[in-house]
Amino acid sequence: MFTSKSAMVLAAVACAAMFPLAGCMMDSAGSGVASQASTGAASSASAMSSEQTVMVGGAAMYPSRTIVQNAVNSRDHTTLVAAVQAAGLVDTLSSAGPFTVFAPTNAAFAKLPAGTVDTLLRPENRDTLRSVLTYHVVAGRLTAADLVQRIRAGGGRASLTTVQGQTLTVTQEGDTVKVADARGDVANVTIANVLQSNGVIHVVDTVLQPQG
Q1: Residues contacting residue 94 through CB under 8 Å, at least 6 positions apart
Q2: Engineering a disulfide at 98: which of 9, 103, 173, 199 sits with its beta carbon 3.0 to 4.6 angstroms away?
Q3: What pLDDT score does 49 carry?
């Protein structure tokens, strides 16, 4: 079973790897660089406060940040963040993209059979983990409106080719967009249109799994 304690440890390791702390270097006067850093941080905070954000996992998701920079702050996605780090996908999801990511929550991973996540996180299973994670990623920036447009154009369903290579099938039921994997499991989009500087995240309640 993937315990909450192990998730917290893995998330901490992932966070440290993604965002190493940059020490504040003091110049010979003792304060010049520190003062500049403080001013820059204040300006950055002011700019972010004016952004239109979406709350995910208790944290504001900023459109000016990358997928990784936002995801690491969501307490509902600690397992996903740890998995992305273990799979070596941090640089990919921090690049320009753009990408559309269907992001499973911790609760979604918890629905998998006991021991599945721990097994996937082992170094010897890195290729399998990469396959599962990239199956949740589609090249391009597809908002909910874009997905619905494709669904209507496809007569009620749309096929999306993932970065992993296999396809996902997207449908709509009422106001909810649903994503079906190659095995027939269906995920609901619970939070849509979490805009990122390098794409968009749609939070889903089920882990999508490719064939094979």
Answers
A1: 18, 66, 67, 68, 69, 198
A2: 199
A3: 62
Radius of gyration (C-alpha) of the chain in whole angstroms: 19
Write down all domains in the chain, each with its CATH number in brackets: 4-204 (2.30.180.10)
Q: At residue 9, what is the residue type?
A: V
The tens digit of pLDDT for each residue in 47-106 reads: 556 889 999 999 999 999 999 999 999 999 999 999 999 999 999 999 998 999 999 999
Q: Cα dist. 33→19, 25, 37, 46, 92 in Å?
A: 20, 6, 6, 20, 32
Interior angle at CA 200, CA 165 and CA 66, nearest 5: 100
Which of these, 64, 65, 59, 75, lies nearest to 11 by C-alpha position?
75
Cis peptide bond N-terminal to 123, omega within 30? no
In the three-class reduction of DSSP (H, G, I as helix; E, B as strand; rest coil), residue 102 is classed as: strand
Q: What 3-state DSSP class applies to 51?
A: coil
User: And the tokens for 76?
Assistant: 């509902």
Stated pTM of the model? 0.79
- Sequence-distant (6+) residues with CB within 8 A of 49 are none
